Amino acid sequence: MFQAPRGTQDILPDDLAHWTFVERTARRFAALFGYSEIRTPTFEDTGLFHHGAGEMTDVVEKEMYSFQDKGGEDITLRAEGTAPIAQPIRLFSLISVFRYDRPQAGRLREHHQFDCEAFGEEDAALDAETITLLWRFYEALGLSGLSIQLNSIGDLECRPAYIARLRAHYAGREADLCGDCRRRLEKNPLRLLDCKVPTCQPIADAAPSFVDSLCHPCAEHFAQVRAALDAENIPVMLNRRLVRGFDYYTRTVFEVWPQHIGAQSSIGGGGRYDGLAEQIGGRHTPGVGFGTGIERLILNLKRQGVEVPPADRPIAYVAHMSEAARSAAQLFASMLRASGIPTVLGVGNRPVRARLRNADSIGVRWTALFGDDELRDGSVSLRDMSTTAPETVPVAVAVDRIAATAGKSA
Fold first, then answer.
1. Residue spans per domain, the chain
2. CA separation for the pair 352, 321 (Å, rounded)
3. Cβ–Cβ under 8 Å, residues 254 and 148
């Protein structure tokens, strides 16, 4: 039998309550902060991610799903959500992202994200507002025990001096580093701080802090970010080892961690990327944003026992009990749907017990059955599934009764 490819999953109706809750809350908070929705292609020119994310990032080197299409074009399934958006506007998206990596809890090869991107301003207030949006979103979901990890990684003016200090710190310790870190030391030293290999941790922990190497404009920007977050009562923890997985980040970087820290613990993060638009061939357009993984959010909602609203279900189940009554059942189902009542129309020819079992498995509140007697009298056998006994009522009465309990106007 065919199975879902490794690192993917089917999201079944019984699982959708959490997904719907997260996505509706995401849309609500994006709108509250002035973001409009965008939907970008599932695949892009491979060069977009090479130039945007950086040649030496793990995502570009190891994790992208890249291929040549039938026209010989180099194509990559969307590996992240920021580079495809880079334009001066506030936009959000709910997207699927593809990474070839070892599947783990909350991190699949196809996973889903809520992204917000604000381009066009360098103001530190926008950094703080972006973090505030993300934090208020988590609060609205009911998550607790989270921490915001915050750092600044400077810009092109002060970064070279810090990288020189970082290389000096690692000099002579190459034998103690993992293979990836030995390559990073030569080609992408900032990635050294993000290594998760245990043997590399003591050296990274003792590395110099970037905050101590910031130029005056970057230091002032970071101070303004922290002051604005204090004014919003947003709690943050300074994390001098925090960097992000893409090379386009500048100045502010942040992640949100749950209480249970692991190698892939972050449930969301982002930062400022003032040079991204230029890296992918555009004009200078500063920006800041975040991405938060929906699978990880749902994992933490379940871990914390957060109750979510039930998924939308059909309210009524309508079926015929004789061939002559088929049209009457179809008409009644149409009347309910015209009143805004989600309705399942039973098809085929089944006995009453099978009809009721079907209705019960769907979880409807009402069943409406039409047989020869109902057809003759202009009535319907109506049953409230929260009780036991059906009753025969006129069709118009049945519509009004179902609509009243559904909060709809017939």
1. 13-158+214-303, 316-405
2. 7
3. yes
